[in-house]
Structure prediction request, 239 residues.
Amino acid sequence: MQWLTAGRGIVHSEMFPLLDTAAPNPAELFQIWLNLPARSKLVDPYFTMLWSEDLLCRRFGARGDSVVVTAIAGALDGTEPPAPPPNSWAADPDADVAFWHLEFDAGARWQLPPAAASTTRRTLYCFAGSGIEIDGNALASRTAAVLEPNAAPWLAAASGPAECLLLQGRPIGEPVAQYGPFVMNTRAEIETAFDDYRTDGFGGWPWPADDPVHGDDPTRFANRGSVREVRGPRHAVDV
Prediction:
């Protein structure tokens, strides 16, 4: 899991090492964009790498007939996951943001707890497997359902294993202007962001080549070894 707050500008590249150079290396990537309120649009960029052992994970039910829930944001079973970036919308307790990954064994059932706020918007996306049932209503694989925030529905994988994402949060309630990789509140702010990038790439690129990865400067990498977090001034390269 990588938390990245773009703020006033950051240059980054999602890259993954080969775990086996002689065999396929399948990867499944979800890039989830979380907006910032106007007051936070130009905060300092922030990057954090969280490895699987750092995440909050709970198994509900016996192995083979269970639901495993991994919480990236939002308290789970009374426990908070690692903190999101300090200026993220997810860091505001009133935002009621949650990102959960749900893995169902065949036949497993689990009751989804209600959201904290009645104004929260909540979506359940079944992205793999044979689909699930929500209080007995079928949700096919690669399909999303909008849920009532105050409800606590029973989720069941009646036909086979399945995987879902729960995405929720309270709306910011501000205008949204988006173009390319930039999300602001007005078209004029989008133009300013483009101008900033064209001028110096959000602060200047201090390395001699344009490659997103080169050299072994530890301040540019998030490694599984001793360097576990990278917070450069205005640049981050994720490996």
In short: The mean pLDDT is 87.
